[in-house]
Amino acid sequence: MTTFEHLPPPSIEDPAADERTQPFWDATKEHRLVAPKCSNCGTFRMPPARFCPNCLSMELEYVPIPGTGTVFSSAVVHEPLTPAAEGHVPYVAAVIDADGAPGIRFVSNVVDCAPDAVEPGMKVQVVWHDVSDTLTLPLWAPAES
Amino acid sequence: MSLKDQVAVVGIGLTYAAPDEAVAVGDLAILAAEAALDDAGLDRRDIQNLAWATGAGDPGGMAAAMGVPEVSFSANLTSGASGAGSLMLAATSINAGFGDVCLSVISFQPIPAGGARTSSAYRANFVAGPGAYGGAMAAAPEDAFTTPAGISSQGATQALIANRYLHEHKVPREHLGEVVVNQRANAGDSLTMAEYLSAPLIVGPLSAYDCTPDFEGGFSAAVITTTAARARDLKQPVVLIGGAVTGGTPSHATPFQMPAASFGSSGHRDLAAPLYEMADVGAQDVDVALIDDDFSPMVLMQLEDYGFCDFGEAGDYVARGNTRLEGGKVPVNPHGGNLSRAYVKGLNHVFEAVEQLRGTARNQVAGADVALVTGSPASIPLSAVILRKA
User: Fold this and answer.
1) Stretch B175-199: mean pLDDT, rounded?
2) Residue among A132, A7, A13 at smallest CA distance from B135
3) ipTM of the complex
């Protein structure tokens, strides 16, 4: 299991998934990134809510995406925002535009670099954080050029 | 049906409780209501309508506790609405003929000394999921897509929006500093730019100065509104509600999925045009602006959204001194605002606007005839109101 520096404390160890979200976590277990998309109108939706805000369909599918993207925004957390975060700062909270899934963003962390080096526009690629037997989280790291 | 100039603010009241004072939140609200009634020259038996934003308790219960004889309108707004939204609801209830005199109130449970988490930076953020704040497990299947990122406070949300804005428009932290230093100066607190810039960041770009200090103790603010016609016979100079709006774009309620073009904004952009149209004024007519300021970047974004300058230009706009009390085109938060005092959910901004238009404010803006008051840039409904001297 890979460990990462500059990561917030694990807030969950299980995704509390239902039939709607389980396919996403099944894919991350296999280190594959997929994006939730309306099967009726093709609009990506994040998080994968019950209804598509574009057409109100309840149909949902997960499509493979390449695992590359761009930091849309980021913020370095310097002070623990909750007592549990003591000893885990600094870390970078980030909002990622993932290639292949226009219109949605992943809310995640950027790791494997100095926190202050992360800024909007930075190219990133997915890395995998195996948290538990049921949860593997996609994180993001600077893209290898 | 337009609300323009139909309803007036006739009474305002603020009460505080010391941290160690044993006063319940509802009692503080009643004390503030009494102060506002006294300010208006009205009696609790005159109240027919109770209308306010969330966070101030049940209107019916308060009417009972105050001995209001009969209630003809009683309502709360939802979610992010604040003080300006209270006035929209109050004006709507009066304009629709449900009753002549409306009480709006906001009240905060006294926080014991040392019990505050010090600032809005740490305030729990429900958009990050109910499981995010102190909870070990996600509560809903959707939460697992946001909670692990460690963004369980309002400071983190604001920082992500602010950093996009600062990056897109190349706004230096000095421009946030101008907002903070200016408001601190208005409150009589001599913070220098050097001190601002050297403060440690909590979550970049926000230091403690960019966030609202938690209020130790309790407070409540109350506003009395009535018809413009009845206002003329009351104690105070008449302050009219020129326009009042609530609403916004629902997509801003889904964390960080807003359209790219409005991500780095306050979400108020949609409210400005209908507000100005209703009140028949423009940004150039606003003499004093009470801008919701729980976080300094949101002040810049609202200045743009309300048309005081072009999008992306607010940093330069404030750096040129346009929002200062001395010589500014439109003084912003002459009372110091939340950034200098405490989080009071908007009604203190209404309070200050009314004092400015009556000509009785501590930091009086000369010739203040038109005031803009904005509500929290939060989940919808956002709110804003134009107040004007009759």
Assistant:
1) 96
2) A13
3) 0.96
